[in-house]
Structures are given as structure tokens and as C-alpha cells.
Amino acid sequence: QVQLVESGGGLVQAGGSLRLSCAASGRTFSTFSSYTMGWFRQAPGKEREFVAGIASSGGNTYYADPVKGRFTISGDSAKNTVRLQMNSLKPEDAAVYYCAASRFGGTLYHPNDYHYWGQGTQVTVSS
User: Which of 10, 45, 51, 53 lies deepest, with the highest CB count within 10 Å?
Assistant: First the structure.
């Protein structure tokens, strides 16, 4: 099994920054680079949506259009951690942010493609 634990959420004013972290562990989490890692978010009353991903074995990154140029995903294989740097935050970025891991390769945008999920961390952006 794989455990994912997010941290770094909180309250920030519009235009500010936050950095989310996701620590991965578990008996079967043998090689960080073997997994595609992603960040999703879910606002009240809305479906969970893709935010950013980092592909396995190569580390190519990809983003949802609303966050391109503002958010950066990065991986630290030595620490089994993936981070999401969020800059120029907007009120519409407010949501619970989830870290996810997939055994599949490639660019994965749909929640159903991910096998493991963290518990989520709240991001609130005040206007």
C-alpha cells in the first residue's frame, strides 16, 4: 500500500503564494520515479479537477490551463516528496488540494487514472 500525506495548505490573500508538499511512503512504494504523481483540487459543489502532474521516469511536467504560468510541480526522489508551488493565487484557486499517485505512465488528467490519494489540504484565498 502507498500512503500520501499533504501539507502546506492555509489562508492566503489573493496574489500571494503557498507551497504544498506531498510525502509518499509505504511498503510497496519502492521507487518514487516509478509513479506518475499529480495534484488535484476540489471546490465545494464542484468535481475534482486536475491541476498539475509529473510523469514517471523522466519527470515531464504538465498543467491544467487555469494554473499554467502560476503553479509549478516538482519532485524530490530522494525524499519521496512532490511539491506544488502556487504563485499569484486567485480566489478561484480556493479548494481542497489532493496529492495522487498512479502506477500508470504518461500524462494522466483523470482522477480515475490514479490509484492512491492523500487526505487533502485546504487552500483558502481571500480577495
Answer: 53
- pLDDT above 70 for 100: yes
**Cα 55 to Cα 53: distance, rounded to the nearest angstrom:** 6
d(CA 69, CA 67): 6
* pLDDT above 70 for 55: yes
Joined together, the cell numbers standing for residue 84 give 506544488
* β-strands 49-54, 10-13 pairing: unpaired
Q: Distance between CA 25 and CA 96 in Å, rounded?
A: 21
What is the dihedral sign for C-alpha 76, 63, 38, 23? positive
